[in-house]
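Final report, results section. Input specification for complex C-07:
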Amino acid sequence: MTGGARGAGRLGLGLTLVVFVACLAISLAFGPASLPLDKLLEYIGAGPGTSEPGGVIFWQIRLPRVLLAFIVGAALAVAGVILQDLFLNPLTDPYVTGVSSGAALGATVGIVLGLAMLPWVTALALAGGFATLAVVWVAARRRGRIDIYVLLLAGVTISYLVTAVISVLMIRAGEDMSAIVYWLLGSFSGRGWEEVQVALLVLPIMVVPLFFTNEMDIMLQGEKRALELGVEVERAKRVLLIVAAALTAIAVSVSGVIGFVGLVVPHVVRLLVGPSHRRLLPIALLGGAALMGIADLLSRTLVAPAEVPVGVVTTFVGAPLFIYLLRRRRS
Amino acid sequence: MGAALISVREVGFSYEVRPVLRRVSFEVARGDFVGVVGPNGSGKSTLLDLIDGVLRPGSGEVLVAGRRTDAYRRREMAREVALVPQHFALDFDLTVRDVVEMGAYCRPGAAAADDAERTLARLGVSDLSERRFSQLSGGEKQLVVLAQALMQRAQVLLLDEPASALDVSHQLRLFDLLRELNGEGLTVLCVLHDLNLALHYFQKLLIFSEGEVAAYGLPEEVLRPEVVEAVYGVRAFLHKHAGRTYLTFSPRPRGRRLGRVHVICGGGTGSGLLRELVDAGYDVSAGVLNALDSDEDTGRELGLPMAVEAPFSPVGDEAHAENLALIEAADLVVVTAVPVSHGNERNITAALYAVAAGKPVFAAAGLPDVDFTGVTRTLEGAGIRLYADTGEVRAALDELRATSGASPADVGDADGLA
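Structure output:
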């Protein structure tokens, strides 16, 4: 990387951090009950034991929900970067591997069985996600290597199959049907510290791809060229696939299936800072978190006290932004 | 044997069921400069992938620096062998410098940035370093990928048709550079299609044919016309010109005999026509020519039957008789605009002989202008056709074949005599 590019990268990261912190503060401050910004520090200082009404809202409702949104947004964005680059396919998102469908099936089974509470829903969603990955993995394995195109096709196929199974379960679910639909749409509503604890698992996992930035850069030239330049391509693919699947499964298990962030954030960030992963990964992580935080804020304030599904908001925010950036780049 | 840097031993390889290489064995010593040639689909690129360990042999083994390629980690292999692939796709917006620096991946801790600058400078493309790779021309990309490969600091450099996207100046610069790097100890194995480049630049050539080694050795020894003909299925001719040896090629004649043409020429007036007729698949003879005459050179390089006289000597009885015999065997005779003097006026006599023998005879329209004897006037009333362009001769040959069926040699006397 050149001095100039390195400077630009640092500037980009700095700017993203500023945006990230601003989004975090705004997300914490606003909601059905607005908390004044200058009081936030006070609440934080007072600790979770506070009995002041604002402090209780902050600690028991607002903070866990905002943290969860930020963590899920970060996880989906990082998974999106990994998968788009692994598949060398710009239309890839964390959901094409079938992992999210599998996780959704797990959660649906949980709801049908009357286990719609922690830790069961999360455990079943994780199990469903990883079981799907295993199936897709076996389908794509050939002479000791993972055929990435077979993986993509198998993932999409499995997604359809699993979705069909979910539909059957929904039809038979009777009064649980609305619970399933609500869960599938994805939401941070009513989520608390238990979900945050589960979601925190993604933090150490998100660190792993940061050790593979060189490999990921080189693999943009295709697997064969990466092999020629000395990359253990199969090992890198295995690690990165498992990382992406784990991030996706965990995210889905605590929040349902929230679309668009994992597809668009990597593109937006790539347009802004280029494809080099040393910059792309951390900025996409912060950007995904910030976007999801703002989306959740809008979802709970636009028609308060009712909520707009957060997946709808991510799309409404993300789509125009993406189109704008694509056009700007063309000219 | 232990000195070989690359040993390919009895290697067989198939994609699925299609065999690509069959029992290939050869060795490359440290510091060798080897060109690999062969028809499309003969297994050259596969061979490079096998040496680099990207592919594993189905049978046999490949050793690099005495160690089987499958015993290498990829990073170790990248420090031994660098490869410049034929095709290179990168659709992302990386700068040239980013791309070049990736070559240093196999050397952790290397000062990649400085090395990248130096490597680009060495290839004479420092100005590209800030450009986007995806916006470069094909030739520029080729040089950048070479720079990337050189960043590996490997002792072996494999190249797969590096010249195919380059203009002639970049081509020569590339091969000169490869030779220079080879002089500094780099072992080079380069697949290429241009047999003349192969002939001029490389110390050794490996000729591949249908997945087997057809020949391996010094360029002049292995690129003999008969080897080229067997491997590529074309006729090949060696020419010496301006101190170098060149190969030129003609399509292989398609079974059927097209007919035989005798060309009376000299002083370079016939070379183009001789080659044109050979390329078109005719049997061609020429005479009488003086030895060392440039038409005589051409005829010799094309392997034509000729009536030849000693240098700077007038046409003697023996050469003249030979010329008449060649005319007898021909279906058509052409006289080029060869300057006629007392030394070669017998060639005009030979043309008249051809007319008398019932052969169609064509003479260049410019012939009388270069006649210093006046002897060509005798041709005027004899029924000779003048041509301004060799296309007219070709048309007459086509006509001849059409009217006479399979054997133009049987054409009746009437044709040439008006």
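The domain at 260-415 of chain B is CATH 3.40.50.720 (Rossmann fold). The interface with chain A takes residues 52, 54, 73-79, 82-83, 85, 88-95, 97-99, 101-103, 105-106, 113, 129-130, 148, 152 of chain B (CB under 8 Å). This concludes the modelling results for the funded period.
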